[in-house]
Amino acid sequence: MSNAPVQGGGAGAPLSTKIANLVIAVLLIAVAAAAIASTGDFPKTMLAADVGPARFPIIHASVLIVLCLILIANTLRMPTIADDTPPVGVAGYAGVALGILATAACLYAMEYVGYAVATVVYMAALMWLMGQRSPLWNPVIAVVVTAVIYFTFQSALQVPLPVGSLFE
Fold first, then answer.
1. CB 158 within 8 A of CB 107
2. Cα–Cα distances in Å, from 30 out to 8, 91, 160, 162?
3. Max alpha carbon distance in the chain (Å)?
4. Which of 9, 54, 56, 160 is the most exposed place for a label (fewest CB within 10 A)?
5. Torsion on CA atoms 87, 92, 97, 101, rounded to nearest 10
6. This prediction's pTM
């Protein structure tokens, strides 16, 4: 497995990036372990052929733990290079704050306009915040991804998604 090249052409990562990778991996392992622990309260089924409602979260969380352990191993193996990147600054933190506010607004808007409308607007706005500013591709990608998620949950998994009180 090779490491992706970074600025300057060398393979490695600044210490701050390595610490961030390790902290994120440990936090995700904790979340996955909590998800596995919470499945103990799920109801058991009486059918021998039924895997029960806890199987999917356990598999998902287990895969997440394995992937985090791979991230930790690769991060620890990777050489540390000099960190010559400038600090994040106010604009970077403002973008993160706007992303969090957009997420809260999307969740709130779903009650009124439904999953599809709220998610398309949210995804297009989030892509714009992350630097993807194509007036053609932002809405196209937002609509396609929202449609795939919608049909996956609504049709394949039979999970009802919010329709919105304005459309009921």
1. no
2. 35, 30, 29, 30
3. 60
4. 9
5. -160
6. 0.59
